[in-house]
From TrEMBL:
UniProt cross-references to Pfam families, sorted A to Z: ANAPC5
Family: Belongs to the APC5 family.
Domain Anaphase-promoting complex subunit: start-end pairs: 283-372
Name this protein carries in UniProt: Anaphase-promoting complex subunit 5
Length: 649
């Protein structure tokens, strides 16, 4: 799409002026919501810039309309009471062939409707009470738009008018090819005579029209390139880019199904270097798009180009923010060493500038990094406990998301260590409340729902976990891993083998890596590779504790070790370990862990011929077992087996 950014009138402006004219002078009762939808995107952007200012929030003007008449009509048709108005509107705008008509509309709005003060509105209504005119002041919502349009007409040169006419004709022509136009077509009428009676067609601008025609014919042979098919104002494009960037960052589900998405894609594909310098957000958009496709060099170049521009604005915060963004870039590509260097650089500069707000943001990013890659926590100059303590003791006046992330990480740490259930539940509750109070995006909600789903699933309450799962969408890596576990349960071992063979463990975070190792252990158990499985269990058990004191994961691997010995018909060798695990899980009140240990001891006792002791152990723990739906079927199968043996004897 060939487009041009302009300060003059655009076809979109002309489309809006028709609505204002019909409402204010011709008595069309147009809902105010229509003008909010139309004029909102042309107001100066709030500069949504998540890389530079974490507090910058998208202005929420609903989704900005793009300069496409089909999209405009489709959006406005959803507003109640607009059907008959849209028929008149389409009849009007498709009957206009010259700029003269629009200029006369503006002139009429200026003379008949635009006033300086509210007092003047009262005076005009008293002077002519029967006039069906809507008045507005220069400072009003409509007044500012009309005044701004009048100024654009004044400063617009001959070439601007020529380009405007060309783009407007294209604007209407493309609309006439759309399905929505075909739906309205039977009710559309030619209102050229009405335009004359309204005084919108005169000879005042005929000279301009004639000169445009003469100039166009004269320059046809001289033109080396086609004129742009679309013109758009800076404010309008910035609002559309803000909306696109907001949805791209927050992962809005229906984002890519919207025509505005395709519009921005066309803009990005055809933007000139000059326009890129005017709209640096495009560098951010390209950076995020390259991250999606894991294009390392292209993403790095876009990030560099963006900060090359913003650092020239001489703002102190930009340098350490650029270092922080560079760290996030390296984290995405799993380059932990370079990420840590960038984190250190960002922290150092933020402290030198005494920028406490950005320093808090950097620390939040560091704890998120440590949560995903705890094996690198020792490379930072401060301990994890010091970081969370610092964040939780921050001033109440700072952003609540600082406390939210502090309590989230605190709950993760306590969950892994399993040493204080009450403190863990308190931290999770505080994290949940703070997160729900300031939800700004689908991604934020998704992160919270995933966290809660994982938490309840680990505690054995899968029914609660499933509720939260219904509101969340896991990452590609986690979704693929879940499918592999399902394949393992369904005995589709070839699929699991292929997955394990092609998985690059260096590209996985801690949780993903440990879950994949657990999958590998279970796969090796099934195919009888007990020695290799035992080696992996020993390595992971040590790593869990040394890296992040993750005793919960260590317990899971040790339970897997017991199951391995049972599969190898060496249950007596894990009796001591299973007994210790049972006592440990009872001590820390890990219900699912207790049940799994009970089942292991039950199988060991059975194989040693101690049937009564085995069932006595089940009965002693029956209350605990029946709490968890996923274990009920298993315990019932043990009792059915016992009854069948009793019947046969």
């Amino acid at each position: 799409m060939n487009f041009q950014v302009t300060v003059s009138l655009t076809p979109y402006d002309l489309a809006v002026l028709v609505f204002i004219y019909l409402h204010c002078i011709q008595g069309a009762s147009i809902p105010w919501e229509v003008f909010e939808e139309l004029i909102g995107p042309t107001i100066e952007s709030s500069s949504f810039d998540p890389l530079i200012n974490r507090d910058s929030v998208y202005n929420g003007l609903t989704q900005p309309l793009i300069p496409d008449l089909e999209v405009i009509i489709e959006r406005l048709s959803k507003i109640e009471g607009m059907d008959s108005i849209l028929m008149d509107y389409i009849s009007c705008i498709t009957s206009i062939n010259t700029l003269e008509t629009f200029y006369n509309m503006l002139k009429a709005l200026n003379v008949l409707c635009l006033v300086k003060t509210s007092k003047e509105i009262t005076e005009r209504k008293k002077f002519n009470p029967s006039a069906n005119i809507v008045y507005f002041t220069e400072r009003s919502f409509l007044g500012k738009y009309v005044v701004n349009s009048l100024m654009k007409v004044e400063i617009g040169g001959f070439e601007d008018k020529n380009l405007l006419l060309h783009c407007f004709k294209k604007f209407v022509y493309e609309f006439k090819q759309a399905n929505i136009y075909m739906a309205f077509k039977p009710s559309i009428r030619d209102i050229s005579t009405s335009l004359i009676s309204w005084g919108l067609i005169s000879n005042e601008y005929k000279e301009d029209e004639k000169m445009i025609d003469i100039f166009s014919n004269f320059t046809k042979t001289l033109e080396r390139s086609e004129p742009p098919d679309l013109t758009i104002t800076t404010n309008h494009l910035e609002n559309i880019l803000d909306w696109y960037l907001y949805n791209l960052i927050n992962g809005t589900v229906t984002f890519k199904d919207d025509p505005s998405y395709n519009f921005v894609q066309s803009i990005i594909d055809n933007i000139t270097l000059h326009n890129k310098s005017l709209f640096p957000r495009i560098h951010i958009i390209q950076y995020l798009k390259f991250l999606e496709t894991n294009s390392y060099e292209d993403a790095f170049r876009s990030l560099h180009n963006y900060f090359d521009y913003v650092l020239s604005q001489n703002t102190d915060a930009y340098f350490h923010i650029s270092s922080l963004c560079l760290a996030a870039f390296y984290v995405h590509f799993h380059d932990a060493d370079l990420a840590i260097k960038s984190f250190d650089e960002a922290t150092k500069v933020a402290r030198e500038n005494r920028d406490s707000i950005t320093l808090n943001l950097i620390i939040v990013r560091i704890i998120k990094f440590i949560e995903s890659y705890p094996e690198h926590s020792a490379q930072f100059n401060v301990k994890v406990e010091q970081i969370t303590r610092f964040l939780k003791s921050s001033s109440d006046s700072i952003d609540a998301s600082i406390f939210e992330n502090a309590y989230r990480f605190d709950s993760v740490t306590l969950f892994r260590r399993q040493d204080d259930l009450i403190s863990m539940f308190e931290a999770i509750y505080k994290y949940t409340v703070l997160s729900m109070e300031q939800l700004k995006s689908e991604r934020g909600l998704n992160n919270l729902m995933q966290f809660k789903a994982n938490f309840w699933n680990e505690l054995g309450f899968s029914s609660l976990g499933n509720i939260y799962d219904g509101f969340s969408k896991p990452s590609v890596a986690v979704e693929e891993l879940n499918q592999m576990y399902q394949s393992l349960e369904s005995d589709n071992l070839d699929i699991v083998k292929r997955y394990l063979k092609t998985t690059n463990f260096k590209l996985l975070n801690y949780n993903e890596r440990m879950s994949t190792k657990m999958l590998q252990v279970r796969y090796l158990r099934i195919i009888g590779e007990y020695d290799l499985a035992l080696t992996i269990i020993e390595e992971c058990s040590k790593q869990c504790v040394s890296v992040c004191s993750d005793y919960r994961m260590k317990t899971n691997f040790e339970i897997e070790k017991c199951l391995l010995f049972l599969d190898a018909d060496l249950g007596s060798r894990c009796l001591h370990l299973a007994t210790n695990l049972l006592e440990y899980n009872q001590l820390i009140q890990n219900g699912p862990g207790v049940v799994r240990c009970v089942f292991i001891l039950f199988r060991i006792l059975k194989r040693n011929g101690k049937i009564e002791e085995a069932h006595q152990l089940l009965e002693q723990n029956m209350v605990n077992i029946m709490q968890y739906p996923k274990f009920r079927e298993q315990v019932l199968s043990y009792y059915k087996e016992r009854n069948l043996i009793a019947i046969s004897t």
